[in-house]
Amino acid sequence: MKALVTGASSGIGRDIARALVCRGWDVIIVARSADKLMELKKELGKHAQCVRCDVSHMDECMKLHEVLQNQDIEMLVNCAGFGLCGFFTETSLEREMDMINTNIRAVHILTKLYLQDFMLKNKGYILNVASIAGFFSGPLMATYYATKNYVVSLTGAIYEELRRRGSNVRISAFCPGPVDTDFNRVAHVKFASKPIDSKTAASAALDGLMAGKLFIIPTVKMKTLKFVKRLLPDKTITHFCYSFQKKKR
Question: Residues 190, 194, 198, 204: is their CA dihedral positive or negative?
């Protein structure tokens, strides 16, 4: 069994790669940082193969799929992504476009290409790493929340299409709250609530994927937050989101 994991140089992606190897999988680890990939390769040994790729570029996504066509990949994990904090009028447009290309376009391209492959074999797994943010609007992190909304919506639609067709291919969206990774350093924010560690997150994500869950939400607190969203007006929820994000600045 072989899995392709993007964003594997750190955080959840790295720990998903580690967890997969522990569960008997071989992994193709993908990221922009060749040095960090080689460090993980040394740790995982013969069970890991490194591919340096910047998935924010469409041509590199297409080439990644092309060069790996001869490998019998049975799982795709879309984990590459990052965030950015600030008022929408003040954040960098260039950085936001890079985020959209990484968090949305790369997920869309790789999901489509590998789903088509998996459909031909009538087997395979796709795990899209989203966030609990994918169910909300996020003032002060507007673009990041919007990208995760896209991933949640896309994954949900594909899940239902596969179910209607009786397919054996499985797709899930992993939607955690705060996870102890480099995310906050890159986004220039700090945790407003206690995070879970990325090893715990990775294990929960894979367990949920194998169980056939659509949305994998690893903590009771985040599940409760999603439930509460149904009970309150959207404006009220967005007001609370602003207050929450403000604490992270």
Answer: negative
Q: What's residue 201's pLDDT?
A: 95
Residue 40: name the closest of 14, 70, 2, 12 by CA.
Answer: 14
- Tell me the pLDDT band of 60, cut-offs 50, 70 and 90: very high
**187/184 Cα distance (integer angstroms):** 5
In the sheet with 48-52, reading across from the earlier edge strand, the strands are 48-52, 26-31, 2-6, 75-78, 125-129, 170-174, 215-216
DSSP H/E element including 127: strand 125-129
Mean pLDDT, residues 115-124: 98
pLDDT digits (tens, 9 = 90+) for 177-189: 988 766 655 545 5
The dihedral formed by the CA atoms of 5, 33, 15 and 212, expressed in degrees to the nearest 10: -20
Q: What is the pLDDT of residue 190?
A: 59
The reply to whether 144 belongs to the active site is yes
Regarding pTM above 0.85, the answer is yes
In the chain, the domains with their CATH numbers are 2-248 (3.40.50.720)
Which residues on neighbouring strands pair with residue 50, listed in sequence order?
Answer: 29
Its sign, for the CA torsion 18, 181, 40, 17, is positive
Of the candidates 114, 125, 144, 159, the residue annotated as catalytic is 144
Amino acid letter, residue 163: R
